[in-house]
């Protein structure tokens, strides 16, 4: 009786994972998602084929695990099937180690969807240990090893600086050089950042061209793309600033600028 109960609990974990990913897949088709964080968008931007590839892989993963845990195999196959079961969990948790390490140490944004899937796989693996499938310890070892390897191996993806004006440029781009010279001529203070240092952020925002001017306007940030658009924006802002300087209020002289 206890053996039947264990199989049902294992199946329940995998079924919940399958239904969760199925729900996300349906939402994805309609342009929605259970995860609205920036981390989800950035992770998706680094996956070839986009989020749909991860969703299909997840459906296949939990579909196979559910079948293995629910189906009654012959006695001659049980030992082999159990090894396959554990091997799939070891591989899956190792992959989760990279996905979570990537979010924790590199983009510093977190994907709710990824953490939910990890939680289901973690509980499933933990339950396998309670079933005395000690090879599952390799799953946790793999997860921890890959998780921390992302910190050691992968370069940091820089965040956009918090200056008022940040110009994202590429070396050898004549339009970028034109904007930089324009700012020097008009004494406009800007901070320059090479585009490759912000590759993850730019991909998530689907920005594919430079120069880009990132404008910090307090509660909002503007992304202005293209040489002419940037120069026009900066000229407008410069003229507004100039009219506010070198003047004195008639009735409040203490506020003279």
From TrEMBL:
Transmembrane residue ranges: 12-30, 50-68, 80-99, 105-127, 134-153
Q: Which organism is it from?
A: Thermodesulfovibrio yellowstonii
Protein name, UniProt field: Glutaredoxin domain-containing protein
Q: Is Transferase a UniProt keyword of this protein?
A: no
The record's listing under InterPro entries reads: Thioredoxin-like_sf, VKOR_sf
Sorted keywords for this record are: Membrane, Transmembrane, Transmembrane helix
Quick check: keyword Membrane in the entry? yes
């Amino acid at each position: 009786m206890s053996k039947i109960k264990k199989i049902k609990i294992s199946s329940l974990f995998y079924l919940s994972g399958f239904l969760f990913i199925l729900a996300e897949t349906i939402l994805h088709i309609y342009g929605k998602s259970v995860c609205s964080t920036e981390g989800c968008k950035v992770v998706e931007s680094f996956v070839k084929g986009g989020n749909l590839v991860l969703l299909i892989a997840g459906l296949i993963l939990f579909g196979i695990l559910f079948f293995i845990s629910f189906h009654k195999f012959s006695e001659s196959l049980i030992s082999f099937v159990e090894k396959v079961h554990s091997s799939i969990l070891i591989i899956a948790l190792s992959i989760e180690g990279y996905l979570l390490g990537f979010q924790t140490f590199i983009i510093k944004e977190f994907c709710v969807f990824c953490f939910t899937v990890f939680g289901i796989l973690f509980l499933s693996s933990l339950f396998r240990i309670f079933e005395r499938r000690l090879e599952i310890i390799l799953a946790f070892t793999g997860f921890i090893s890959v998780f921390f390897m992302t910190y050691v191996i992968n370069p940091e993806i820089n965040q956009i600086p918090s200056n008022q004006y940040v110009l994202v440029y590429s070396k050898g781009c004549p339009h970028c050089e034109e904007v930089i010279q324009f700012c020097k001529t008009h004494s406009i203070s800007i901070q320059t950042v090479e585009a490759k240092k912000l590759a993850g952020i730019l991909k998530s925002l689907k920005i594919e061209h430079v120069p880009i001017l990132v404008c910090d306007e307090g509660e909002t940030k503007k992304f202005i793309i293209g040489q002419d658009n940037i120069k026009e924006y900066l000229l407008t802002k410069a003229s507004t600033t100039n009219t506010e300087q070198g003047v004195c209020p008639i009735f409040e002289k203490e506020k003279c600028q």
